[in-house]
Every structure is written in C-alpha cells, then in structure tokens.
Amino acid sequence: MDEADVRDRLRSVEDPDLGDDIVSLGLVNDITLDGETVHISLALGAPYSPTETAIADDVREALADTGLEIELSAEVDSGIDPEEQILPQVKNVIAVASGKGGVGKSTVAVNLAAGLSQLGARVGLFDADVYGPNVPRMVATEERPKATKDEKLVPVEKFGMKLMSMDFLVGEDDPVIWRGPMVHKVLTQLWEDVEWGALDYMVIDLPPGTGDTQLTMLQSVPVTGAVIVTTPQDVAVDDARKGLEMFGKHDTPVLGIVENMASYQCPDCGSEHHIFGEGGGREFADEAEMPFLGSIPLDQRVREGGDDGEPTVLDEDSETGEAFREFAADTANMQGIVHRRGLSVERSTPDHEHDHEHGHDHQHDHGH
C-alpha cells in the first residue's frame, strides 16, 4: 500500500459541515509511510471539538483493515510568521463580548473555558475587563500569579485552566481610573509578560461595550473567533448588534450568538418562566445570519456557582450545566468550521466549488 492508496481511502471520510470529503477539501496536509506506520497530518484546528474528533476517528476507521499503525497529527497554518505572533503557542483565541454589561458575559466566559477544558483541551482564561474584573472571585481563587526570574508572570491554575486577570494586578482595594492609552499599554504588556505555554484555546473575557478597550484587544491579539452574549430583551439584542458590527470591521469571525438568562426554572413549582421575554437571541441570530450557540437558563445555582467558585458547566446533574456543555462543544465546532472552510477555499479542487457554497449554508443550519 502506498501514499496514493491511503489518500484514496481517505476520500471516504466526509466533513459533515462542509459537505465534501477531506481530500477534495484540501484538509489532508501530508501522508508519510514509514514501514508499517502511516503518519497523516490533518488540517484540523479546533482540538477536542466533537466534530473534529469524529473526523479523526473516521480517518482511523477508513484505514482500520490495512494493518498499518496510524499516527495522526493536526496542524493549521495561520499564515503569520511565528516571530511576529504575540501568542505563537496558542492555537485559538476566542473573545467573549457583549454590547453592554449585565448580561452575564463573565459567567459565559468562565463556563466556556471550563467546558473546553473538560473536553480535554489545554485552556487559558484571560479576564481582560479592566473596569470590573471578577473572574478570580467566580472561580474562588485566592492565589496570585508568581513571577519567574526573567520577570514573566506564571498564570494561576484552577479547574484545569490557566488564569490571568486584571484583578491580579490591581486588586480589590486599589481601584484604577483607566484611560485608553494606559489600557493599551497594560494589555499588550500582559500578553508579552505572561508564560501561557502551549494552549489549544485562550478565552478572553472582554470588557462590555464596543469602545477603545475592545478595539485595542482586537488589534493586539490574533482573535480567531468571537462569541456574542445577549439576553432575550430587545435592548440587550440591540447592544449585541453593536458588538457584531465591531467584529465585522475587524474581519474577526463571529462564531455565533449565545442567549444567557433565557428562562427561569422555578425550584418550588418546577415550571419555567421567561422573565426577560422569549426567543430574542435566536431571532437575532437568524436575522444576522449567525449560528445560534444556545440558550442558557437563568439558574440560582449559576449565581451561587459563580460565588463559590465551581463553574456550573462542571455540574453533571444540572440542566444549566448541560446547556453550558452543549454551548462549549458548539463553540469549538464552529471554530473548527471557520478554520476548515478558510483552508478548503484556498486548497480544494475546482470541481468542488459548488459544494463549498452548500457548506456555507450548512454552517448557518449547524448552529440551529
């Protein structure tokens, strides 16, 4: 069996989102046969996402009866010179944004990061909210980053995540009046001065709003995808629209819309109440032609979990935890689609252009 035979076998492996096989889509970087071992490099960029894990399993299945030992690796070329990259060892940078405060954005960011970590990924969580950093309290950590000999900061670790927060630098008793240029300086310095190590995902909890601070973040870090948090009310959806426009101007892919505080499960009567209205987030996602990443119920335990430090996504018996787990998986899947579509457009064979159009439609359906 030679490399061409292996490649032919791989034509049976479909990408479920782009609607074609991985060879035609250009998602096979390299095949090398070395004795009884075949090394296959796949252009998969969202580690531990359920879809890409399934694609890798299908690759193994397609070659299962060949007797070859299969070694898979995944690599996506970002196209940026490693020396120019601020975070060369970080594969994905996902910004969690909202047009205004009060929509539970930090809760969503913490549960997204913890959910990705629970899938098996190496995750960092950067609380970049200079005006109200509250992630350390939400994960109940008293620790502070330690400094190395060469004056780099070593992030705090909790629930399998590496954490950095503006709160670690300013502290509760030291409020700082931040101005635009100061924010820029501190944030860029933080990237360069933190020993993040190798990460599959960095989740950034952006400050609410669409002002200078957010633009600074987008200019200084290679954001691979953004999640917009809204609540069902019209006013929150209007604010989310501003967030969408901001990412559009910076060509940052929006992975989708998540609706927080969607409904309240009454612990006494067991019935569901839509306190803030119903369906606003889904309607907004439809209207904006963006994937809908799910509805997170309003849950007393989320607030308590936020205060006692255990992210709800880790609670196996909670419906809200399940909603967060599905949201984390969908977000990882969408990040994978963004990478694979970008590569397939560059690399695929011309006769498959029609299928890519089909794949584009499929992305919108995928989030629903």
Poorly predicted segments? 271-278, 352-368
How far do the termini sit from each other? 42 Å
Number of helices: 12
- What global shape is seen? globular
Q: What percent of residues adopt helix (DSSP H or I)? A: 25-40%
Which whole number gives the mean pLDDT?
80
The number of strands is 17
* Lateral strand order in the biggest sheet: 10-11-7-12-6-13-14-17
How much strand content do the residues show? 15-25%
Major sheet size, sense and barrel closure: 8 strands, mixed
Backbone structural class: alpha/beta
CA-based gyration radius: 21 Å
| SSE arrangement, N to C | HEEEEHEEHEHEEEEHHEHEHEEEHEHHH
What does this structure look like?
- With 368 residues, the protein is of the alpha/beta class.
- The protein has helices spanning 3-10, 50-62, 105-119, 135-138, 166-170, 180-193, 212-220, 234-249, 280-287, 300-308, 319-347, 353-366, and strands at 14-15, 20-21, 28-34, 37-42, 69-74, 90-97, 123-127, 146-147, 153-154, 156-158, 161-165, 199-205, 225-230, 254-259, 264-265, 272-273, 292-295.
- α6 (180-193) runs parallel beside α7 and α11 (319-347) runs antiparallel to α12 (353-366).
- It is globular.
- The two termini are 42 Å apart.
- 45% of the residues are buried.
